[in-house]
UniProtKB/TrEMBL annotation:
Species in which this protein is naturally found: Ulmus pumila
GO biological process, one term: pentose-phosphate shunt, oxidative branch
Taxonomy of the source species: Eukaryota, Viridiplantae, Streptophyta, Embryophyta, Tracheophyta
Keyword Chloroplast included in the entry's annotation: no
One Pfam family in the UniProt entry: G6PD_C
Name of the protein: Glucose-6-phosphate 1-dehydrogenase
Amino acid sequence: MGSGWHIEKRATIRSESFAREDENVPEIESLAIIVLGASGDLAKKKTFPALFNLFRQGFLPPNEVHIFGYARSKISDDDLRNRIRGYLVHEKTATPKDLADVTKFLQLIKYVCGAYDSTEGFQLLDKEISEHEVAKNSTEGSSRRLFYLALPPSVYPSVCRMIRHNCMNKTDLGGWTRIVVEKPFGRDLQSAEELSAQIGELFEEPQIYRIDHYLGKELVQNMLVLRFANRFFLPLWNRDNIDNVQIVFREDFGTDGRGGYFDQYGIIRDIIQNHLLQVLCLVAMEKPISLKPEHIRDEKVKVLQSVLPVKDDEVVLGQYDGYRDDPTVPDTSNTPTFATMVLRIHNERWEGVPFIIKAGKALNSRKAEIRVQFKDVPGDIFKCKRQGRNEFVIRLQPSEAMYMKLTVKQPGLEMHTVQSELDLSYGQRYHGVTIPEAYERLILDTIRGDQQHFVRRDELKAAWEIFTPLLHRIDDGEMKPLPYKPGSRGPAAADELLEKAGYVQTHGYIWIPPTL
């Protein structure tokens, strides 16, 4: 147990005593990235493309880095390379340089076949990693090992045990071993705590990176800057000025062949308990005393611990018509594909402000956004209340943007008011700038040892404490989802809940992303 902790604590230490006797041989801190579950969908669609983009941008120097794929499939190095090749660039639009970069990147990948509970498999993996480290002229123990678990959580404990006993750095010479684990982190508070305890017995918290890709999105990462680097937001961001906050996730497609998997979790476990709750933390948290990861995460935990128990009459569940037609979904499934709920934060800043969380599949649009609605203007001399309230909207995806809805005079001779916007659309303002994928950013953070955008154990526990009672009532059939038509806004009761919570919909105004 001690060695893993000391390795991590000394991850940034460099010492002249590491130098080899032959001063002409450059010493390199090699980096081995091991993708477990390398033959699966997540690895080929997200993990490997993210690594490729980091490689192209110079963050994974080929003289330092080697990438290992580990899975049960009996395939060769070239088989794995061919499986992921098509996900790295679009061949129809790829330039000769793109294709050359793909070839160079794929040469860094080696495949190891083995079971996830096999000592022999992980010993073979360790042997391959060690050979890479020697080939890179890396001093034993000073190398870096990053294990990315692109696997279902059920195998996390056995995989972590195998890594801990077979694949750690051998000495305390400044290297590190880190593991990245994907959601879902359990199904409820008890299962999440059991999983955390099992992994916590093997690795210390600074070695564990619980990834939530929403925390890697550009506009989510902008939240702290927006809130705490702009003077005009500081006095407005409270219960005195804000009437309600919406955090919305909408998809215009259903489960698309993943019905059996989705049915085990439902929309609350899949989207709300993790992605949207993390966004809520950034919207509602107090200013941290610094940008150190622990200070930021301390403030997020305080928000979660201030959330009151969810009331049944402030929850609307839905299930789209046709969901149960999927042969992998039980005919009697009670799993919600849609949920709208009101969370209330019991503290000085947010007392009385409803945070409306909304997520659903098979709806009439695809978007994720934060919508902060301000209170009515007192003493409205222009009689423009019917046109709608001021809103600050942060569009997370697609068409990343942030805009403020405000009332202005309509151009012309008459004194008529109309709603318009102050608009920062990223595609227009930052034309030609490629916004990195969330996984790129988060993998780079892991290599750098920055845990700011990862979920800490007490944060995970606090999140599950909010939703576990509600989830158990749904699982036990005490709460039923309402049917809704695919391509609709969801159940009508959800809009009624929004209105009851105090949200005032703007009529006659639609935000249109500006064109170049």
